[in-house]
Every structure is written in structure tokens, then in C-alpha cells.
Amino acid sequence: MSTAPGSVQSIDRTLSILETLSAAPLGLSLSDLAAATDLHISTAHRLVNVLAEHGYALKDPSSGKYRLTLRTFEIGSRVSSVWNLLSSAKPQLDELAAVSQEAVHLVERDGHGIVYLYKAEPFQQLVRMDSHVGLRNPMYCTGVGKSILALLPPKAVKEIWETEAHPVFSPHTIVDFSDMQKELDRIRSRGYAIDDEEHEPGVRCIAAAIRNWAGAPVAAISISAPVSRMDAQAMERLLPRLLETSVQISRMMGFSD
Amino acid sequence: MSTAPGSVQSIDRTLSILETLSAAPLGLSLSDLAAATDLHISTAHRLVNVLAEHGYALKDPSSGKYRLTLRTFEIGSRVSSVWNLLSSAKPQLDELAAVSQEAVHLVERDGHGIVYLYKAEPFQQLVRMDSHVGLRNPMYCTGVGKSILALLPPKAVKEIWETEAHPVFSPHTIVDFSDMQKELDRIRSRGYAIDDEEHEPGVRCIAAAIRNWAGAPVAAISISAPVSRMDAQAMERLLPRLLETSVQISRMMGFSD
DNA sequence: AACAAAAATATCACATTATGAAAATTTAGA
DNA sequence: TCTAAATTTTCATAATGTGATATTTTTGTT
Predict the structure, then answer these.
(1) Does residue B22 reach within 7 angstroms of strand C, measured from its CB?
(2) How many pairs of residues across A and B have Cβ atoms under 8 Å apart?
(3) Which run of H or E residues covers position A141?
(4) What pLDDT does residue A5 have?
(5) Is A203 helix (H, G, I), strand (E, B) or coil?
(6) Residues of chain B where predicted confidence (pLDDT) is lower than 70
(7) Which of A223, A217, A48, A238 is nearest to B11 (CA)?
(8) Which of A76, A144, A150, B166 would be B73's cystine partner, CB 3.0–4.6 Å?
(9) Average pLDDT over residues A99-109
(10) Can you tell me the distance from the alpha carbon of A120 to that of A131, in angstroms, rounded to the nearest whole number?
(11) CATH of domain B9-71
């Protein structure tokens, strides 16, 4: 582990510990943590205890394992954009879920990916979908992601495309750049995106971008359903609602036309 | 700024930067950040850039200010207890909000306080309440907090009481320890807690604890409403629902009787 | 536009600080 | 109870982070 110039070794290592712990739902023993982060056990001990002193981690008294506390949740929930979006969008999304009787997602763009900020589900309609608040996904294979890509400058799209891999999740996943460009053209002309089982087999969704005061596509919303329910008629019925909601939220973010 | 023995200066400072940024919705310039954290500007620059390299912060291109990214949200959302509780409790809480037509909260105990994990609101019922997901509150002045305190060992209650201050939020706030002990007795015998404008004037709520497999009160749920709506009859009507839901969730956490 | 002032970023010699080997202690297993 | 493993503490040492200074960039003013 060589520290990049301008970086700080102890912080690199501590963030590595933080991330390792966040991926371990059951917690980790000190030795496991040291092994997973490739640190000397003495160093791992010191660093995880610094996190503990600051309330970010603790040694679970019953299991003896280290795990993260809600301090990280607290800090993460305070990120300003989460605030802005959720406070203005939540009621609209709940209503959209209620009238469509399908799962509705709100995601925000973050760097080259999207992060799920909110999921509104209708009662009883339990669809197996592995989306959840806090999840990060790439843009190229999701409806929400593509709806955002379609409104980004071509240079940005290219940069994003070139700096990441494009795993195939299904036969429908778009992995060719010129195919993606055509798809983004379609999305621009239609005003919405369709994810036709490109990420999760069996799930189809329609998505629309949310734009801020500067017109930048900072977020997106979607309605997801099993392909059996999300057929042509369903899409025709749901699209006006989806677009209406996305426009409303965009307006609340300061976007005008 | 003297580093406590066993601690690591650069991490102390970086976490201080993280926390400062999380409290600044509009972001902070480098000099403001340095001033707020009492760091040399050169040091602040180096440390915030380490956070940026790891994707936790960024320098907003439009404003030139540093702010947190969704990386912190992503890490925070992965805390295992959030997972466990949310996945089992969410549908129940949504239903409770729907049948009661009032705001429902789920909180988890974290150290000496509670953190809001979920808020379910009925349509249209917009009550001014400054609760939100991620918020941390003390236990002594909230219904959820008191319902948890009531099931903790007396030693733990005493320890929590003695290590924190007890600001008065309203004439009803309980700030005397023996008063609190009587109140916790009442809560134990009734099986639920009432927050009668002890934290937010004008808001009354009923709360019940959620217990895990070991019987420990790890979380709590509540129904909140303006005092005008949350009168004796309303409480009589809502209590069975609240208790039923808390028992259901406790069962899903592995608690039996 | 040109200038001045302020803010942000990069450099680097140095002393402070984090490091990890080793010892001491605690916990778990036989 | 004893043994082995895991955790925690200690401490000498060198590597690492620090902050003064220099450079560059940005911002505001005439």
C-alpha cells in the first residue's frame, strides 16, 4: 500500500476501514478487519479505535466485533442535495406510487453513477427488486441513469462511458457506445427513458430526468414493474403521470422550461 | 488542538472536516472550512482533498465550495441495523400511517440518543414537525426515547442521564431524575410512552419500544400529531394499533414474549 | 482591460507523528 | 485448569504529516 503523493496514509487507511466495515453487516473481528484492509493488526486496532472514539464505529459488546454506528447514517443523511430533493419530491412520489400502484424511485446523480434516495411502494405490491435507498448503480443500464445521460453534454457522456466498464446484466443491456448514442437520441426526442430488463431481468421501467435551475439533469424518477404488468397500455397510462411529476419536481428545483 | 493519547491527529482533523461539511448545506470555501475547523489553511486543503480523492467530498465547480457527496449517504445507508429494521418494519409503518392518518416514526437507539430511520406520513396530512430521517435526538424528551429508557437496566438509565445535559424545550419537559424514574415506571406498567409536548410544543405522540432477540429495546416507533387531534379518544383508538405493530416488528427482530 | 488583493494550491525542509515490532493482557477453546 | 489465539498496550524509531513560504488562480475594482 503506497500512499499517493498529496495523500495522507492514515486517512487512506481509515477510510478503507470505514468502507470495509460498511460492507460487513455482521461486523468484523479486529483480525478479520486487519486482514481485509491489509493492515498490521496493531495499526488496524489503532485506526478503528479512532473511529470508535469519534462515535463512527463500536466494538459490539455481545459479539466482540467492530461495526459502524448510526453516526455514519446521521452524517450521510445530512448531505444537502438529499435534503433538497427529498423535501420537495417525497409527497409527489408517494402519490405517484399510489396512483400507479407500482414502485417509484428517486435517484440523484453522483459522479459517474446514480444513488437511490427514496423508494415509494404501493401497499401489498411486493415486487422482488434489489433496489434500496443508498444503493449506487451505473447510469448506462438503468432507466433513471439513461434519462440523465440523455441530457448531459456529449463530452460528459463520452467521459463517463470511457471511464467505466459495462457489465452485461441481460441480453438487452446496451454495451456499445454508438448503440447508446442512438438510445440517448430516442430518449431526448421522447422525453423519457425505458429500461427494458437491461439491468434486472424481469423488470421494466420508465424514467424521466429532473433538472435544476441551471437545466442540469441532477436527478431522475422512475416507475418500475414486472414486464408482465408494464406493457404498452400500462406505459401509455403511466407516462403522463411520470412526466407531470418530473416536471413538478424540476420546477421546485428552480428549473423553468 | 491537542491530540488525545492513542488518537491520530490527521484523522481527528479529517473527521472534524467531514462533520463541519455535513453541517453546511451550501458548502464551504476552503478558508471558511479552515476557520471553522481551526486548521491551517494548507492543512485543511490537504485533508479535504484526501476526502475528495476518495469521493467523499468535492469542490463544487459552480460555487467553488467544498461539499459532501452522496458517498457518505451510501456508506451511512449500509449500516446493518438500518437494513434489518427497515426491511422488516417499513410495510407495517406505512400501514400504521395509513390507518391512523398521522405521522409515524421509526427510531433506533444509538449510544445515548436515538436516530430517526424512517418517517411514514399520510397523504396531505402536512404537520409541521422538524423530524426527519437521520436526525439525532436525546432520549429523555421524546416518546420513542422514553419508551426505550423504560426497558433499559436502571444502571444504564442513570449513566445516560448523568452524562448529558437536559435542556428544557417546554414546560412539560422532564428534567428531574426522580420525576423521570416515576415516568419510566408509568411507561413500564402501561406498555407505552406519551410525549406530551415535551420536545416540540404543540405535538403530542404515543410511542412503543421494539425489542430484539435478547429482549433489549433497540428501537421504537411512534405516532405523532398536533395536540388538538391527539386527544384522549384518539389515543384510545390508536394505541392498540401502535402496540400491535411494535409487537409485530419485535417478533421479526427475534423477540419472543 | 489592467491591476490589486484575496483565495486557493503546490512545494519542501523539518520535527512531529504515526508506525509496527514486541510485550502484556484478555478471551476462547480444550 | 491449562493452552492457544486474539486483542490491547507500550515505545523506540523512522517515516510521515505538517505548516511556512512560494506560486498560481480567482475575484473584485478602477
Answers:
(1) no
(2) 165
(3) none
(4) 64
(5) strand
(6) 1-5, 124-127
(7) A48
(8) A76
(9) 95
(10) 11
(11) 1.10.10.10
Least Cα distance to B70 among A118, A33, A252 occurs for A118
Closest by alpha carbon to B107, among B93, B95, B96, B97?
B93
Average model confidence (pLDDT) across chain A: 93
Minimal CA separation from B58 to chain A, in Å: 10
Positions on chain C within 7 A of a protein C-beta? 7-11, 17-22, 27-28
Q: Integer distance in angstroms from CA B33 to C1' D25? A: 19
Query: Which nucleotide minimizes the distance between its C1' and the CA of B32?
Result: C7
User: Within chain A, which residue ranges are assigned CATH 3.30.450.40?
Assistant: 79-252
Residue A159: how many other CB atoms lie within 10 Å: 13
Q: Where in chain B is the domain with CATH 1.10.10.10?
A: 9-71
Query: For residue B252, what is its C-alpha cell?
Result: 421479526
Q: Is the dihedral angle over the CA atoms A58, A60, A65, A68 positive or is it negative? A: negative
* C-alpha cell recorded at residue A150: 440523455
Task: Give me the helices (H) in chain B, please.
Answer: 9-22, 30-37, 41-53, 71-77, 80-100, 143-149, 154-162, 177-190, 232-252
Answer yes or no: CATH 3.30.450.40 is held by domain A79-252.
yes
Residue B1 has a pLDDT of 40
- Contact residues on chain A for B110, CB-CB shorter than 8 A: 69-71
- Given a cut of 90, is residue A128 above it in pLDDT? no
Percent of chain A with pLDDT over 70: 96
- Give chain B positions within 8 Å (CB) of A37: none
Percent of chain A scoring above 90 in pLDDT: 84
User: Length of chain A, please?
Assistant: 257
Task: Indicate yes or no: CB of B111 within 8 angstroms of CB of A83.
Answer: no
In this complex, which residue's CA is closest to the C1' atom of nucleotide C6?
Answer: B31
B43 touches strand D (CB under 7 A): yes
State which H helix or E strand residue A157 sits in: helix A154-162
A134/B46 touch (CB, cutoff 8 Å), yes or no: no
Confidence (pLDDT) at A2 = 45
- The CATH architecture one would assign to domain A9-75 is Orthogonal Bundle (1.10)
Can you give the pLDDT at residue B125?
A: 63
Contacts of B49 in chain A (CB under 8 A): 6
When pLDDT is averaged across residues A123-141 and rounded to a whole number, the result is: 85
